[in-house]
Design goal:
The protein has helices at about 5-35, 55-60, 60-95, 100-110, 115-130, 135-160, 165-170, 175-205, 210-215, 220-230, 235-260, 260-265. With about 270 residues, it is an all-alpha fold. The longest helix is centred in the first third of the chain and has 34 residues, at about 60-95. It starts with a helix and ends in a 6-residue tail after the last helix.
Length: about 270
């Protein structure tokens, strides 16, 4: 069918609008990326010259190394615990009817609309009131609260798309409950579990606002270390760290989407 001139005009206008939106979204990241190669010791745009020394400084700065290690520890614990707790709660909410179910769902999703600084401030006041130290346990618990809704959502979608008849057929053929879970249920939930863990890990690793309240010098994560750095220095090192952040996260998402099909996990693609 031949398109009319009006349809072609609307198509071109739509493509132009999408290009402008993408440019608007990517422009800050592009400016930071270009500024990270600035040879000058002052963060500025456009660069007066080009150098890679700020990337070298980013990898050698001691606080960034400690922050990266702390961030990996907190991320591993928070995302793994969130996957375990979120999966259990998603199964209970999806398969069982009980009094207070809607209230429980609302409470579990509340971190989505409660500002992160309120979560961090509340935990800081609670820890101080109980005379507890702000160790890894407090930081992990804080991140667990913040990433749990995303894991719950991801796993819930996978459970909703799971055909319960396959489990019933396996059970009717003599499979034990454990065998049904390991051979039927778990393999079908695996993309949702992996996708939920991945999003939880990325969100936890990048979390800053609440972490600022609950971390100390010995437990500060990389975003907090970056914040402390920019208060003392104005060189392009922070831009170099941001570029490494963006590239690493983008590569992880591309690989995960390639092997897990994150679009299906998030229900933005048909199965």
């Amino acid at each position: 069918m031949q398109r009319s001139r009006t349809d072609l005009w609307l198509l071109r206008a739509g493509q132009g609008l999408i290009a402008l939106i993408l440019l608007f979204i990517l422009l800050p990241a592009l400016v930071v990326a270009i500024a990270s190669f600035n040879a000058s010791s002052v963060l500025a745009f456009p660069p007066q010259g080009y150098s890679l020394r700020w990337f070298k400084n980013a990898f050698e700065y001691r606080d960034f190394q400690i922050g990266l290690w702390n961030g990996l520890i907190v991320t591993a614990w928070a995302s793994s615990l969130a996957t375990l707790v979120g999966t259990t709660l998603a199964i209970v909410i999806h398969r069982y009817e009980f009094k207070g179910k809607r209230l429980l769902e609302g409470l579990l999703l509340s971190p989505l609309f409660i500002p992160h600084f309120m979560v961090g401030l509340g935990l800081l006041m609670l820890v101080s009131q109980l005379s507890l130290s702000r160790g890894y346990a407090v930081v992990v618990f804080c991140h667990l609260l913040l990433v749990l809704p995303f894991v719950l959502r991801s796993v819930y979608v996978s459970i909703h798309n799971l055909d319960p008849r396959t489990e019933l057929v396996a059970a009717s053929l003599g499979a034990t409950p454990l065998r049904v879970v390991t051979t039927i249920t778990f393999p079908q939930l695996l993309p949702g579990l992996a996708g939920g863990w991945l999003f939880a890990a990325i969100l936890s690793f990048n979390e800053f606002t609440a972490s600022l309240f609950v971390t100390t010098q010995s437990t500060q994560t990389l975003p907090v270390a970056m914040y402390n750095y920019v208060r003392e220095y104005a060189d392009p090192t922070l831009a170099a760290v941001s570029v490494v952040y963006i590239v690493t996260t983008a590569m992880i998402m591309i690989v995960a989407n390639r092997y897990l099909g994150l679009g299906k996990v998030l229900s933005v693609e048909s199965r």
